[in-house]
Structure formats: C-alpha cells, structure tokens
Amino acid sequence: MIKETIITKEAPKAIGPYSQGIKAGNVVYTSGQLPIHPETGEMPDNIEEQTRMSLENLKQVIEAAGASLQQVIKTTVFLSDMNHFAAMNQVYGEFFSVNYPARSAIEVARLPKDALIEIEAVAMIQS
User: Fold this and answer.
1) pTM
2) Which DSSP symbol is given to 42?
3) What is the band of 93 on the pLDDT scale with cuts at 50, 70, 90?
4) pLDDT tens-digit profile of 26-66?
5) Nearest residue to 110 (alpha-carbon basis) of 34, 12, 39
C-alpha cells in the first residue's frame, strides 16, 4: 500500500513535524485541524466561528486527497470546554447532513495556540 502525503495551501500549514493528511489506499486520515485562517494565520474569537473555520480547513484537506465531506466516516472533535458542545454541534450540522459520520467529542485541558476546538477525520474515497 502506498502512503501519500496530502498538502494543500487551502488549509493552514502543519505547525510541527506532521502532515495535514495522509492517504493510504482509499482511506484519508487528517491531522487535527485548528481554526486558523490559512491566509491570515488568525483565529476567530468564538466557538461558532472557530468550529466553522476548523471544518472548512478539514474540508480542504479531504478534498485535496480526492474525497469529500460526504465520504467522512469518523470525526473526532477536541473541545477546550464541553460547555461549547451545543454551539459546536449547531455549526457541525451545517457541514454534515444525512448519513452522519461516527463522532467522538472530547474535552481536553488545552489545545495548540489556545484554540477552543480542533477536529480530525477519517474518510473513504469511493472508487
């Protein structure tokens, strides 16, 4: 099986020794996507806009691998505060409809750059 590194300028560059995503066969694994605007390097202030930015970044990495959000089978959402869950869930529902992916949501002590959210995914590319 060939492992292919996914790189796109449409999502923030990796801020360490990791890839934005990896394609292995017909499976795409993304790194956690922070809510960093790829052009400005800025993060929105509130959880709704941070969720939207993280999901937009996730979408760009998945599309660069040849898949789409409709092909996502699993997401993991890391939240700095579980009190943000309802607001995150509202925005999340704008990106995923019917045939929802499996999802875990986890509260963590701290995220890189003090983000409020980070989201990673696994997608299957249909042949």
Assistant:
1) 0.96
2) -
3) very high
4) 999 999 999 999 999 999 999 999 999 999 999 999 999 99
5) 34
Strand partners for 6: 21
With helix as H, strand as E and coil as C, how does 49-97 read?
Answer: HHHHHHHHHHHHHHHHCCCCHHHEEEEEEEECCHHHHHHHHHHHHHHCC
Beta-bridge partners for 123: 28, 72
Helix (H) or strand (E) holding 35: none
Chain centroid offset of residue 53 CA? 9
Residue 98 CB partners (closer than 8 Å, separation 6+) = none
Structure tokens at 19: 């890839």
Longest Cα–Cα distance in the chain: 42
Calpha distance 35→100 (Å, rounded) = 22
Q: Which DSSP helix (H) or strand (E) runs through 47? A: helix 47-64
Distance CA 67, CA 118 (A): 20
Taking residue 3's Cβ as centre, other Cβ atoms within 10 Å add up to 10
